[in-house]
UniProtKB/TrEMBL annotation:
One of its GO terms (molecular function) is endonuclease activity. InterPro entries: Nuclease_put_TT1808, Restrct_endonuc-II-like, Uma2. Pfam families: Uma2. This is Uma2 family endonuclease. It comes from Streptomyces camelliae. Residues 13-175 form the Putative restriction endonuclease domain. Keywords: Endonuclease, Hydrolase, Nuclease. SUPFAM superfamilies: Restriction endonuclease-like.
C-alpha cells in the first residue's frame, strides 16, 4: 500500500459510520468490524475497570488510539491513562499518552489480539498490553515494547491463570482475576 493509499484509507475511516451495534477499527490499513461482545467479555471489562483507582487513572472504553507511523486506529476494550494527561476532547488518543491497553479475547478476535494488535501496540510504544483470555482462562501481560512497524513486539510476557493475582507494575496495583468468567463450548487455541 502506498502512502497515498494509507492517507486515503485513514481519511475514509475517519468519516466511516459502521452500522449500529458494530465496532470498526483500522488495523494496518484494513477496516475490521466486530459485533457486540459477549456478556462474559463485558463483565471482565467492568471488573477490570472497577479495580483501577479512578482518582489516579482514567479508564476509557471505546476510545480510538492513534498509533504513530502506523495506519492503525485500534479501539481497545479499555485504555488506561494517567489522570490529567489526555486531551480534553477529540476522537483519537495518542499512543504515547497511554499507560496500558486491555483487550478481552472474543471467539473471533484471537489472532488479532495475540498477533496483530500485539505488534501495533508495541509499535505505538504502549508500555503495557494486557490480553484477558476467557477461552484459555488466562491473562497475558506484555511489557517493554521494542521495534518498529510489523517487527515491533514486547520483550516481556507474563502469563497468569484466572484465579491468581496479577501484578500490574505500571499501575502500581494487583489485579484480582478470580471472578473473570470463561466462554462455554469454545475450542482452545495455540496462543500466546
Amino acid at each position: 500500500m502506498t502512502a497515498v493509499d494509507e492517507r486515503g484509507i485513514a481519511k475514509f475511516f475517519e468519516e466511516f459510520e459502521p452500522p449500529e451495534g458494530i465496532k470498526a477499527e483500522l488495523l494496518r490499513g484494513e477496516i475490521v468490524m466486530m459485533a457486540t461482545p459477549d456478556l462474559v467479555h463485558n463483565r471482565i471489562v467492568a471488573d477490570v475497570v472497577d479495580q483501577i483507582p479512578r482518582k489516579r487513572w482514567e479508564r476509557l472504553q471505546v476510545t480510538d488510539v492513534d498509533i504513530i507511523d502506523e495506519t492503525s486506529e485500534p479501539i481497545p476494550d479499555l485504555v488506561v491513562v494517567e489522570r490529567g494527561v489526555a486531551p480534553d476532547s477529540g476522537r483519537l488518543l495518542p499512543s504515547q499518552l497511554v499507560t496500558m491497553v486491555v483487550e478481552v479475547v472474543s471467539k473471533t478476535s484471537v489472532q488479532r489480539d495475540y498477533e496483530i494488535k500485539r505488534s501495533i501496540y508495541a509499535a505505538g510504544e504502549v508500555p503495557a498490553y494486557l490480553i484477558v483470555d476467557p477461552i484459555m482462562a488466562q491473562c497475558v501481560l506484555l511489557t517493554r515494547p521494542v521495534g518498529k512497524g510489523e517487527n515491533a513486539d514486547y520483550q516481556r510476557q507474563q502469563i497468569t491463570k484466572f484465579g491468581a493475582p496479577l501484578p500490574l507494575e505500571d499501575l502500581e496495583l494487583e489485579l484480582d482475576t478470580s471472578e473473570f468468567g470463561t466462554y462455554l463450548n469454545v475450542r482452545p487455541h495455540r496462543y500466546p
